[in-house]
Task: structure prediction
Amino acid sequence: MGRTKTQTKGKKGPIVIRGWSNAEVLAALEHVAGALGIQVRYERGDFQSAGCRVEDQPMIILEKNDKLSSQINILMRELARFDTSHIDMPEVLSQKLENIQKSL
Result:
């Protein structure tokens, strides 16, 4: 069995925020996750990145070797499942999460 690269279903491409590097977007999303009490882990293995719960602790586990753009897409999709309205974040990031929430 070969490893299947993680893809976000229904997405046309990577999420882009004009003027931000992928590393900046990823750091901002990790901040949002932390504010929500969600642990983000980067692991190596034969799995698809996704959100889960471990002993009632929400967690997002990302394949360490995936491209930053894939990690961003997955983090955005998983964070969009939570109420982020009370989290302090840049407006552009909030709008991207709202757009994803509407499509879920």
Q: What stands out?
A: Residues 1-11 have pLDDT under 50 and may be disordered. The helical segments are 22-35, 68-79, 91-103.
